Each structure stands twice: as structure tokens, then as C-alpha cells.
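Subgroup meeting minutes
Present: P.N., E.W., G.H.
Scribe: E.W.

1. P.N. recapped why we're keeping a running log of single-chain structure predictions: easier to compare across weeks, and new members can see raw inputs and outputs side by side.
2. G.H. added today's entry (328 aa).
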Amino acid sequence: MSEELDQTQGNLVAVVVTYNRLSQLQITVDHLLNSAPEHLHTVVIVDNASTDDTATWLAAQDDPRLRIHRSEINAGGAGGFETGMRIAMDEFDPDWLVLMDDDGRPQADALKTFHHLDLGKWDAIAAAVYDDKGEICDMNCPSRNPFWNLRVFLRTSLRLGGRSGFHLKPSDYAGTQPVDIDITSFVGFFIRGAAVKRNGYPDPSLFVYGDDALYSLSLRKAGSAIAFHPQIKFEHAFQTFQNEDRRFRPLWKLYYYHRNLLLLYRAASGPLFGLVLLMFLPKWALKVRHHSGETRAFTRYMWRAISHGLRRHTNVAHDDVVEWSKSP
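Output recorded in log:
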């Protein structure tokens, strides 16, 4: 390991958010607790009011490194991470936090590797995330903001907005050096406690999707340095989409995804936001062709996502969002 040093990053606390995925949570907790105490001080688990056997299983755990919090309501990933990060900061004052979903976890020795890298110039680090088949996990691939870099913007534009223009490349994953980034996910996201104290917490009103991208982008806007490090490896056994046409299941997820994506596009593009709308809104409208038999519900969700996203309206109760699918 070319950058490995005889050092440690200090007190590391993991934050895991879970909801009704006990089998995945059990694997993740096992991976985390297999890390030595000097590499992982505490695991904060936020149970988002799961209705399966999660609460029973967690209540039976007696490892002293576990700090379990059960929420009264399902606050989504955004609310769960905000709650977990606050617990971690208030109770343990960590040097670093590492965030992950219940189906994301460090590979063997990932946390040990983290502690033995020279990370002195970085405020946050994104791990290299792979799926359970060992392939690069596209949904967790970090990126640069194309609107802050002319060369990246031109490359993205010439490829008609393709992800390859601004996301990291396979060669970045194959390397050994950190790569400067602007946007990343919360699967394998390490952040200094000092950076949290300076910049605050994720927005819990986002519920799900985009909270990680908006939070990491806000860190960069505030002057924090964020890097992708290929030597820290995570696995993400995600099952977001169930169909080949990549429709969201349940359909209400479509609302959060597109509403929050508009918030991210505005934050990233600034004065060019109008141009972004011209590029993406027609494509979103055409997605209706994939939703035979649920056209009215799709249209209702998409229209509200766009309307609320443009007005930056996020104060919507999740129960109401679910009920929209039942409207005539």
C-alpha cells in the first residue's frame, strides 16, 4: 500500500440507518464488529421504526460498541442519517464518522486501511463502492460538479449529459491515489467530526434520495476538501429497482427522486439552472411510456415532484406522499 503510514485517524464512529431489511443489517453489523476496536469505536444504528423483526433482533444484541436508537416514525434515509450523526457527535465526539445504509458495508480490512492512509488534507473521504458481484456500483460512483469545471462541463455536454462526462472512471478505481470530488453518496462516506461541527447535518426533510449528494455538495461549497480513495473498499448489496425498465417500486419513490434531483440540479448549476430544466424535464415526461396501467398515478407523482422541486417545497408528510397513489 503505497500511502500506508504508521498512524491512525483517531476515534471513528459508524452510523447505519435501517428500515425493514434485517437480513442485510445483520451482515453489515457483523462486518463492522469484525473490525478491531482501535479501528472502530462505536456503531450507531438508527432503526427507522421497522415493522419486521429488526427491533427484536437489535434488542437482543449485547456488544458494548453498539448504540441503538429506534425512531418513533420512519424518517427516511435523510432523517435517519441526521439523527444518527447527531447522536454520534453528541455522545462520542468522534474524530471521524463513517456513514452507510443497512445494505452497505466495509470489505475486510477497509477500516484498517482507512486508519493507515495519509488523509491530512481531506475533510471527507468517499470509499470505492462495489456491488455484490464485485462490479463498480454505478449508483454510488462519486462525481465532480460539471458547472464548476469548464473542461468537465464541455465533456459532459458533448456526451449529451451522460454520466461518464462527470463521474469517476474505472481507472480511478484501479489507482492508489485520492481523487478530488464534489458529490458522493452516504455508502462508505467518511467525514471529520470537525467538518460536521462547521457545516451541520443533512436535511431530514428530503426523506430519501439526494440527501447525500446535496450534503456533500454543500460541504464543497463551504470550502471542505473531499476525495475518493480507491484503497478503501465497500460493498453495496442494493435492490433499488426490481424491473428491467428501472421503474421505482413502490411508485411513491419516484416523487422523492425527481423532487430532490431538482434541488440538486439547482444547487449545482446556479444561474444555468434554466438550461438544465430544458434538458431534463422533457426526458422525465417521456418516462410515462414505461408505466402502462399506472399512468395517472405516475403523472400525479411527477407533476408534484416538479412543482415542489421548483418551489423548494420539502415540508411534505411521508404518509401523504404514499396516499397520493390511491387518489382517483
